[in-house]
Amino acid sequence: MHTLDIIYMLIALTLGTQLCRFLPFFLPKNLMNHPILQKLNRILPLVIMVLLLITSVSIPQNNQGYVLFGAQVLALVSVVISYKYLNNILLSVSLGILNLNLSLWLFS
To answer: Membrane-crossing residues (predicted)?
Structure first.
């Protein structure tokens, strides 16, 4: 990528992020209390966390890398379960990292 393309991408990402942050201040309150938006507000952090974790899982190729794949899936499951019960993103991600490293240490 060229430097100018990277600058345009950063500007677009910044504007998109700021639009999402400031849009609730300008929308009417009755629209913000709509049940669909309330449900989206409750489930969105978990969905984003799962999407980020799924994209980081490495798929084994040529019958190699199954230990790493298994450890990553185990860490992913532990993050989802811990977030569901503890409802704390920092603690859930920390437990997932700990679980991944312990699994790799045990299985290697």
So the answer is: 6-28, 40-59, 65-82, 89-107
One-letter amino acid for residue 39 of the chain: K
Q: Model's pTM, two decimal places? A: 0.54
Alpha helices in the chain (DSSP H): 3-26, 29-32, 35-56, 66-86, 89-107
Say how far apart CA 71 and CA 58 lie, in whole Å: 10
DSSP character at residue 63: T
CB of 69 within 8 A of CB of 58?
A: yes
70/65 Cα distance (integer angstroms) = 9
> Residue 1, SS3?
coil
How do residues 47-97 score in pLDDT, each as one tens digit? 887 787 777 777 888 877 888 888 888 888 898 899 889 888 889 889 989
With CA atoms as reference, report the closest residue to 50 among 17, 74, 76, 73. 76
